[in-house]
Each structure stands twice: as C-alpha cells, then as structure tokens.
C-alpha cells in the first residue's frame, strides 16, 4: 500500500493478530507503550481490537511489513484527528526483534507522508516516555521537535519519569 525504503504500511489482516499479541505482550515493548501497569493482554482482547477497526472513526491503523521478507513487524497509526485545528496524534510499535534496524523511522516517515499529503493535516503530535531514548532519537531523525514535558507523568521501574510531547509541522516535513 504505502512503501518506504525498508517497510510498507498496509491494512491489518486476521493473521497479524497472533504476532501482534506476542510482540505487544513482550515486557520490554509493553513498558514503553502503556501508562498503566504493563500487564499482559489476553489474545481475545487483541482480537476484539482487530474486529473494531474501521476507517470511519477518524483512527487509521496500519500493519508494518518488511519489504524484503513480507514479515509483520508491528503497527502504527493515527489515534486521533482534530479536523478543525488540523492536528493528528500518532503512535507506533515494533516487535523487539526488529528494534535498531531503521524500520520504525522508515514507517514513521511513510505515516507522516500519508497524513500530510493525503489527509491535508498541518501538524502531527506524539507522546513518548523520557526513558525511551531510542524512540526519541528516531522521532528526531524524522523531524519531530520536543514541544513540552509532562513532569513525572509515568511510574515505571521504581521511579517517576516525564512524558515528552513531540510535534512536527507539515512545512518542517516538506523541508526534510
């Protein structure tokens, strides 16, 4: 569907659900994604999420697939759209075996291109925990800038951490 240098973004398929469940339940992945207690999700909950997907709700979720192998790597999407103010909020996750290979940055660039060129959105935001330095570095590579911090917003690994708010404008994306 939407291709970059290493990955394509495509629709979710029923056969992705088992791998998505496996990847999202990896403790190291889970602790980076949820503000609550990183408790394992049941397969039935992932199936329910899959069954609830619809492009008619202003949320758009894509599976991330390797161009080389066709393997499911994770997911990304638009979690919220403010049409009046032309702002979208995005999120992304990869299975741990695919970290540090450039897949996430490639997927985010494709997602941004889709948002700016197909949806006519002016600004994209995301939130990330301050201890997720790898993700922050990837987002900066994609052109995101730190816009603010919610101090000591999440409790993880025995202490409080900030939640970092990042954003990119269409004009900044077009210049990169």
Automatic annotation (TrEMBL):
It holds the Pfam family Acetyltransf_3. InterPro entries: Acyl_CoA_acyltransferase, GNAT_dom. PROSITE patterns: GNAT. Residues 7-171 form the N-acetyltransferase domain. Coiled coil: none annotated. Keywords: Transferase. It comes from the Bacteria. One of its GO terms (molecular function) is acyltransferase activity, transferring groups other than amino-acyl groups. SUPFAM superfamilies: Acyl-CoA N-acyltransferases (Nat) (SSF55729). This is GCN5-related N-acetyltransferase. It comes from Mesotoga infera.
């Amino acid at each position: 569907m939407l291709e970059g240098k290493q990955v394509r973004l495509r629709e979710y398929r029923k056969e992705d659900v088992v791998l998505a469940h496996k990847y999202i339940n990896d403790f190291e992945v889970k602790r980076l994604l949820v503000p609550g207690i990183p408790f394992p999700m049941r397969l039935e909950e992932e199936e329910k999420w899959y069954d609830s997907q619809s492009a008619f709700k202003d949320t758009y979720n894509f599976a991330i697939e390797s161009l080389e192998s066709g393997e499911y790597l994770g997911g990304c999407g638009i979690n919220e759209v403010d049409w009046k103010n032309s702002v979208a909020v995005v999120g992304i996750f990869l299975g741990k075996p695919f970290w540090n290979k450039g897949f996430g940055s490639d997927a985010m660039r494709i997602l941004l291109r889709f948002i700016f060129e197909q949806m006519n959105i002016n600004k994209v935001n995301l939130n990330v925990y301050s201890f997720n330095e790898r993700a922050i570095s990837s987002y900066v590579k994609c052109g995101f800038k730190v816009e603010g911090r919610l101090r000591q917003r999440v409790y993880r690994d025995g202490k409080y951490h900030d939640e970092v708010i990042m954003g990119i404008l269409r004009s900044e994306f077009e210049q990169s």
